[in-house]
Write a structure and sequence with these properties.
Layout: H1 6-37, E1 46-53, E2 59-63, H2 75-86, E3 90-99, E4 102-107, H3 122-128, E5 132-136, E6 171-177, E7 181-185, E8 193-195, E9 209-211, E10 219-222, H4 227-238, E11 243-245, E12 254-260, H5 261-271, H6 274-285, H7 294-303, H8 329-342, H9 345-351, E13 354-355, E14 373-380, E15 383-391, E16 397-405, H10 411-428
Parallel strand pairs: 4-5, 5-11, 8-9
Antiparallel strand pairs: 1-2, 1-16, 3-4, 3-12, 6-7, 6-10, 13-14, 14-15, 15-16
Helix pairs in contact: 1-10, 2-5, 2-6, 2-8, 5-6, 6-7
Length: 429
């Protein structure tokens, strides 16, 4: 062999060796994942798992990626993407027209007005400076609950009603202690609240609330909304009378903007807040229609930014409370890929929850491992899903969706299986 050809064959041999090692490593990773998916904890139930390399777009693993699952709160990822596409940096908080010395306003669905955690007062402070204010509440075709929501959740913190102008998160905040006695916010509901043992925390069809004197936690209980109640709560907050209008002037509308939308996205995802998710989807619809409508926002996204999903989802609400929702793991990976492509990483990973001791996991059971997951969970009876991103030890970024439906074991066992599977990817990919 001519000496000049030796370096070429040496390089070629090294290349084949590296390719062999790479393929062997990928095969080993696949075998590891398959062994995890055959664990006893995943028997007699339905599972889907898709992993994609964010840089190469290579699908690292696919089990049941094109099958439909009940997504639960993974639906909030789709609401997040909708907000990213439709909402501006600061959320539109109300629309208004001045006519005959009266300021006519209508809500946009912005959930932040006097919210117990967001505590935004932008609109309230602005309205205090105005003269006569008339509020119009008929700019929606939305029902108070989403399709498929469970009626018996009416008194639970995660099921507030949807409205065009929500106030205080559409919940009453209650606490009781021997030293302070009964604490109620908003104060307007104080004489409708009793410190007593009761089967439910609110009467089903009336704003009468109950908290046990032995209750140690602060409760958030949804109140029944109405146009007249909105008027009264606003009058109390503004310290002046307002008019409840049955019409809105036919003139060009102006928009008042509120708090930064990213802060609402982050609160929605970190707390898995159903109310914020539903209202954000309504607020998104305000950018494409004068009528606030969850269905309009969903249809717009499915016909435009999500038209290329390989499996068209059945998508009915913003929060995932409804079991009518159906998404595939592949669809979530596609949506997460879009988010990664369209949102700078620094911003995206500040908004996305991190699975770690200082974020969404109360007790971190793997103290020798640095947190490596940016992901949103989704759980509803007998279902637990996790979709998001893995930042591997080697610095690569993987996009994944691990969906688990119809199991009869504790969800903690499913979570452990998800974590150990993703940890293997973190360490070896």
């Amino acid at each position: 062999m001519h000496t000049s050809t030796r370096p070429f064959f040496k390089i070629l041999s090294i290349s084949y060796l590296l390719l062999f090692l790479l393929l062997s490593g990928c095969s080993s990773i696949r075998k590891g994942i398959h062994s995890k998916l055959k664990k006893e904890s995943l028997e007699n139930s339905f599972h889907g798992f898709v992993v994609m390399d964010a840089t190469s777009k290579k699908v690292v693993h696919n089990t049941n990626g094109d099958k439909y699952f009940t997504p639960a709160s993974n639906t909030k990822l789709v609401t997040f993407y909708t907000g990213i596409k439709l909402l501006p940096k600061n959320i539109p908080t109300l629309k208004y027209v001045v006519a005959n010395d009266t300021l006519f306003i209508e809500g946009t669905g912005d959930p932040s007005w006097l919210h117990p955690h967001l505590k935004d007062s932008t609109a309230i402070n602005w309205l205090k400076e105005q003269g006569t204010v008339a509020i119009y509440k008929k700019n929606t075709d939305e029902l108070r609950y989403g399709p498929g929501w469970a009626w018996e959740d009416y008194d639970t913190y995660f099921s507030p009603e949807k409205t065009t102008t929500p106030l205080y998160g559409n919940v009453v905040t209650l606490s009781y202690s021997d030293s302070l006695g009964l604490q109620v916010s908003p104060e307007w509901f104080r004489d409708k609240t009793a410190p007593k043992e009761h089967t439910f925390k609110r009467d089903e069809f009336a704003n009468h609330f109950y908290i046990s004197p032995a209750e140690q936690d602060t409760l958030e209980v949804p109140f029944m909304t109405s146009d007249s109640l909105t008027q009264r709560l606003l009058e109390t907050a503004l310290g002046k009378s307002i008019v409840l209008s049955d019409h809105f002037p036919d003139s060009p509308k102006q928009t008042l903007y509120g708090m930064e939308t990213d802060s609402i996205f982050k609160q929605m995802l970190f707390r898995s807040d159903n109310f914020l998710a539903e209202q954000l989807l309504m607020a998104s619809s305000s950018m494409i229609s004068d009528t606030l409508s969850t269905r309009r926002a969903i249809d717009y996204m499915l016909e435009n930014d999500l038209a290329d999903l390989e499996q068209k989802p059945r998508w009915v609400d913003g929060s995932g409370l409804s079991r009518y929702n159906l998404f595939t793991p592949r669809s979530f990976v596609q949506i997460l890929e879009k988010l990664h492509q369209e949102v700078p990483e620094e911003r995206l990973f500040d908004i996305m929850p991190m699975w770690g001791p200082h974020s969404t996991v109360k007790k971190w059971e793997d103290p020798t491992t640095e947190p490596f997951l940016f992901a949103k969970s989704g759980s509803v009876g007998n279902n637990y899903n996790l979709s998001g991103y893995v930042r591997t030890k080697s610095g690569k970024l993987l996009i994944f969706s691990f969906m688990n439906n119809h199991f009869r074991i504790p969800s903690l066992e499913i979570r452990k299986t998800i974590y150990t599977t993703l940890k293997e990817l973190y360490e070896r990919y």
